[in-house]
Design goal:
mainly alpha; 3 domains; 13 helices; Four Helix Bundle (Hemerythrin (Met), subunit A); Helix Hairpins; 305 residues
């Protein structure tokens, strides 16, 4: 996912595009997001809400006005193709959050407006390119997350059934049924109180089986799967195209790569062609240097004579 306005390709003839690309504009939007997030948190404190409710409401209106102005300017910055603003998923998210806060809802739907104001804090993701990079990597990892989750729940189911057979009679409160066993083993998976559970089973007559059972479950269910998730996220971040999350950062000028990315289609042939061309240039340069050295030697010999 990319940002709507690329600050490296700003239309100089469009004053709205120049305004959107200016660092002061992005700083003002980021400041409004932070102020809005703080205001939502202050409203949860009854004493502050009762004493400064009107002031908080007034500042919140100013924050909302900044968001509306941002949406309008970004649409105008697209020039004669304003629909391009909605081609960016991040812009759609910003527009949706702002639109929810502007809906003329009555008191029955006050919770919707409050949720919309809370969601404005998530706009911090769209304002910071690095957060966009992380979120984009997470979204790209969702299919792999699904398969890893399926494998994890399969492991959880197998161990839960085994726990019913091994510890059900001695500890019916935790392992008396499959449902109770699943809940208990899920708690063990989060590493919450698993030592106490294992100790109770050891005292109940399984001094060897209980440690082997719980330690193997934690090693396979927590350590291995955690590493798998980290690996999937890192791999997704490495596969993101250059400039994915940096287009809103005016100071981020990615260095032009002398060679095409190795993940691109036909990258191997392009690499081979470019390397061959550069080797040919180096060989030609060496031939020229060799010829010049020979000429210098000949001139030196002629001078000595």
């Amino acid at each position: 996912m990319t940002s709507g306005i690329d600050t490296r390709q700003v239309d100089k003839t469009n004053p709205f595009a120049r305004a959107v690309a200016h660092r002061w504009f992005r700083g003002a939007v980021l400041g409004a997001i932070l102020v809005g997030a703080v205001l939502v948190g202050l409203e949860t404190v009854p004493s502050i809400h009762d004493s400064y409710g009107e002031a908080i409401w007034g500042v919140d209106r100013i924050v909302l006005a900044v968001f509306v102005l941002e949406v309008v300017l970004k649409i105008l910055a697209e020039g004669r193709r304003p629909w391009r603003y909605f081609a960016d998923p991040w812009n759609v998210f910003d527009f949706a959050v702002t639109a929810i806060c502007l809906l003329p809802l009555d008191a029955k739907f006050a919770q919707v407006l409050r949720l919309g104001r809370v969601a404005r804090s998530l706009r911090l993701i769209t304002a910071l390119p690095r957060l966009q990079l992380i979120v984009s990597a997470l979204l790209r990892s969702l299919p792999s997350f699904g398969w890893i989750t399926l494998l994890l729940f399969t492991l959880l189911y197998v161990y839960s059934v085994m726990a019913v057979f091994l510890f059900g009679q001695a500890d019916p409160e935790r392992f008396g049924s499959l449902w109770k066993s699943v809940l208990t083993m899920f708690g063990v998976l989060t590493l919450e109180g698993w030592v106490d559970i294992m100790g109770d089973q050891m005292k109940a007559g399984a001094p060897v089986m209980a440690p082997v059972f719980f330690v193997s479950f934690i090693m396979s269910g927590t350590m291995i799967f955690l590493n798998l998730l980290v690996g999937v996220i890192v791999n997704s971040m490495s596969e993101l195209p250059e400039g994915t999350a940096g287009t809103r950062d005016a100071g981020a000028h990615p260095r032009p790569s002398p060679l095409p990315t190795i993940h691109a289609a036909g990258a191997e042939s392009e690499h081979v062609t470019l390397v061959a061309e550069r080797l040919a240039r180096v060989e030609a340069a060496l031939a020229e240097v060799t010829a010049e050295l020979r000429e210098l030697r000949r001139s030196g010999r002629d001078g000595s004579r």
